[in-house]
């Protein structure tokens, strides 16, 4: 019968080693995320899939905060982040750094996630919006495009932290597997 691995058998990086290791060429942008649990989950997912950076915008809370740390489980210490007050200033920074910006949103010209093919020579910024209102129109207008995760049930959306995990895994799996 298979047995669970002990934590030390997982050979995880410590924070110092994580800071020094190469990251995958993508970043998360969290714009107007209300829930600190979702923000903490974003850090934890970003750590797990070696996201290069997290950009926090608008009303999105910033570490250090007890509610973020509770869900992040220390990933708020390992993943680098930057805060921007407005989408415009963050878009400008991402463009200066050479990122292709993709919103994760249901729009009339969205690309189904399974059809998205990242170029190996490019860096990507994935924008996740407010839990109720979605991605701000400023982001949609300033992005290279929008990606959509197909859904087959009665609901029209996924929790934003679940969406981040799906997008991160999809990108990493297409980049290295």
Provide a descriptive summary of the structure in words:
The chain is built from seven helices and seven strands; from the N terminus they run αβαβααβαβββαβα. The chain is of the alpha/beta class. It has a single domain, classed as Alpha/beta knot (3-Layer(aba) Sandwich), CATH 3.40.1280. Strands 3-2-1-6-4-7-5 form a seven-stranded parallel sheet, sandwiched between helices. It starts with 14 loop residues before the first helix and ends with a helix. The mean pLDDT is 96.
Quick overview:
This protein has 177 residues and is α/β, with parallel strands linked by helices. The chain contains 7 helices and 7 strands, in the order αβαβααβαβββαβα.
| Separate helix tally | 7
Reading the helices and strands in chain order gives HEHEHHEHEEEHEH
Number of strands: 7
Query: Which CATH C-level class is it?
Result: Alpha Beta
Distance between the termini: 28 Å
Please identify which CATH superfamily we are dealing with: SPOUT methyltransferase, trefoil knot domain
Beta-strand content bin: 15-25%
Mean pLDDT: 96
What do we call the CATH topology?
A: Alpha/beta knot
Q: Please tell me what the overall shape is.
A: globular
Secondary-structure class: alpha/beta
Total individual domains = 1
**Helix percentage:** 25-40%
What is the CA-based Rg, rounded? 16 Å
Strand count, sense and barrel status of the largest sheet are: 7 strands, parallel
Major sheet strand order: 3-2-1-6-4-7-5
Per CATH, the architecture is 3-Layer(aba) Sandwich
Uncertain segments = none
């Amino acid at each position: 019968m298979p047995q669970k691995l002990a934590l030390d058998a997982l050979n995880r990086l410590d924070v110092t080693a994580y800071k020094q290791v190469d990251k995958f060429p993508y970043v998360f942008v969290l714009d107007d995320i209300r829930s600190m649990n979702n923000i903490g989950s974003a850090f934890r997912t970003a750590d797990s899939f070696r996201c290069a950076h997290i950009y926090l915008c608008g009303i999105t809370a910033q570490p250090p905060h007890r509610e973020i740390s509770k869900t992040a489980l220390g990933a708020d210490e390992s993943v680098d982040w930057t805060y921007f007050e407005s989408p415009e200033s963050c878009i400008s920074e991402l463009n200066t750094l050479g990122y292709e910006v993709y919103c994760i949103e249901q729009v009339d010209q969205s690309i189904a996630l399974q059809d998205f093919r990242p170029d190996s020579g490019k860096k990507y910024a994935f924008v996740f919006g407010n839990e109720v209102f979605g991605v701000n129109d400023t982001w949609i207008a300033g992005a290279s495009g929008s990606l959509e995760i197909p859904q087959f049930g009665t609901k029209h959306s996924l929790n934003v932290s679940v969406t981040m995990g799906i997008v991160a895994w999809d990108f990493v799996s297409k980049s290295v597997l």
